[in-house]
Design brief:
Helix content is 69%, strand content 0%. By secondary structure, it is mainly alpha-helical.
Length: 64
């Protein structure tokens, strides 16, 4: 005989598995420690400051 399967439980189990898969990918994509976030922010600021200091002319507003 075939095994009896509760479809409601099977759907919920599949949904939980899909949520866990999505959560895992989000952790890999967005999950940075506070130290890593701070380091990235400081590196971006350093790069931005360097580019601003290397600018040949000042920004000019183009209001015609």
């Amino acid at each position: 005989m075939a095994t009896i399967v509760n479809l409601r439980q099977a759907r919920k189990a599949r949904a939980r598995a899909e949520k866990e898969t999505k959560a895992e990918s989000n952790r890999a994509k967005f999950g940075l420690t506070k130290a890593e976030k701070t380091k990235q922010r400081l590196e971006a600021k350093k790069l931005r400051d360097h580019l601003d200091q290397s600018r040949l002319t000042e920004k000019q507003d183009k209001t015609d």
